[in-house]
């Protein structure tokens, strides 16, 4: 049985068992003796990574795969996963994960479909109260964008959102030669560990709006891109001539706080 890689599903199958093993071994999650932690693998394909995740006795593994042909391959190759109903055929971006995995899913792992990796991260953010750790392979530029901090040109919306709730490490780079077919881009493996921020110390909805608006015009100073929100208060002054890539997560929180405090003051006056 052979699964022909489909471009529209972002299928680039890893051919190196060694790298698959390295990815699986990068999960660094405390599990009590005798217990198991729920782990979802996104996009198992033909299961090269699945094999090593299944061998890890700390993990209660389930996989989500959108491609029917890959699912058939997995069912034939890993009957034990199938019998326990742990092979879910579906779209990670649409499934109701809480309903699907009532036992929890603190760990998310995978060699992600690169064409939708940003959407996968936005989805993970929706489940940030459940997902404690992510170990994944993605396009190298996206990995850099997500891991980089303020002051770098790769820093962007996803960096701010993810870094607000996760501590992120760039683990290692992977060349295109170990995939079938080789992707046009280089790859990298990163690990995200949930930090202890339950909620940001500001209006989170406004925070998201402010971050998005700032980066949508990333070359402009904030006094221009955020003009409709700024209140003219003294707390905002130090940000006015800055560009979004210069603000840390804490700066965006401070700016959001100041905007909501002062606009509330203005409405109630
Ligand atoms: N883990 C495998 C395959 C990686 S390629 C390996 O390393 O070889 C990415 C995989 O994600 C493909 O199998 C593709 O079918 C699957 N995929 C693409 N979009 C998906 C989605 N929305 N939900 C779940 N799986 C998806």
Layout of strands and helices, then pairs:
Layout: E1 13-14, H1 17-25, E2 37-42, H2 48-55, E3 59-65, H3 68-77, H4 79-83, E4 87-89, H5 97-100, E5 107-111, H6 117-126, E6 133-139, H7 140-147, H8 157-165, E7 166-174, E8 179-180, E9 187-194, H9 204-216, H10 222-225, H11 249-268
Parallel strand pairs: 2-3, 2-5, 3-4, 5-6
Antiparallel strand pairs: 1-8, 6-9, 7-9
Bound molecules: S-adenosyl-L-homocysteine.
S-adenosyl-L-homocysteine (SAH) binds at residues 9-14, 42-45, 48-49, 64-67, 70, 91-93, 110-111, 113, 116.
What does this structure look like?
By secondary structure, this protein is of the alpha/beta class. It contains eleven helices and nine strands. It has helices at 17-25, 48-55, 68-77, 79-83, 97-100, 117-126, 140-147, 157-165, 204-216, 222-225, 249-268; strands spanning 13-14, 37-42, 59-65, 87-89, 107-111, 133-139, 166-174, 179-180, 187-194. A seven-stranded mixed beta sheet has the order 4-3-2-5-6-9-7. It has a two-stranded antiparallel ribbon with strand order 1-8. β2 (37-42), α2 and β3 (59-65) form a beta-alpha-beta unit. It is elongated. The termini are far apart. The mean pLDDT is 95. S-adenosyl-L-homocysteine binds next to β1, α2, β3 and β5.
């Amino acid at each position: 049985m052979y699964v022909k890689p489909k471009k529209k599903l972002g299928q680039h199958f890893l051919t190196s068992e060694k790298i698959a093993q390295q990815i699986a071994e990068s999960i660094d999650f405390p599990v009590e003796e005798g217990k198991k932690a729920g782990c979802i693998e996104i996009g198992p394909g033909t299961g090269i990574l699945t094999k090593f995740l299944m061998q890890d006795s700390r993990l209660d593994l389930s996989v989500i795969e959108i491609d029917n042909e890959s699912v058939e391959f997995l069912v034939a190759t890993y009957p034990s996963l199938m019998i326990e109903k742990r092979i879910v055929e579906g779209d990670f971006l649409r499934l109701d994960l809480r309903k699907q995995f009532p036992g929890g899913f603190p760990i998310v792992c995978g060699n992600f479909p690169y064409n939708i990796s940003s959407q996968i991260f936005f989805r993970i953010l929706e489940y940030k109260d459940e997902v404690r750790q992510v170990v994944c392979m993605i396009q190298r530029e996206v990995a850099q964008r997500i891991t980089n901090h303020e002051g770098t040109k790769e820093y962007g919306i996803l960096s701010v959102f993810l870094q607000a709730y996760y501590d992120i490490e760039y683990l290692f780079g992977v060349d295109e030669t170990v995939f079938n077919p080789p992707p046009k881009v280089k790859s990298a493996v990163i690990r995200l560990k949930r930090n202890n921020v339950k909620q940001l110390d500001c209006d989170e909805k406004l925070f998201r709006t402010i971050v998005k608006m700032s980066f949508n015009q990333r070359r402009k100073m904030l006094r221009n891109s955020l003009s409709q929100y700024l209140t003219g208060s003294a707390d905002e002054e130090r940000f006015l001539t800055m560009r979004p890539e210069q603000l840390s997560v804490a700066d965006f929180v401070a700016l959001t706080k100041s905007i909501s405090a002062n606009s509330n003051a203005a409405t109630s006056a």
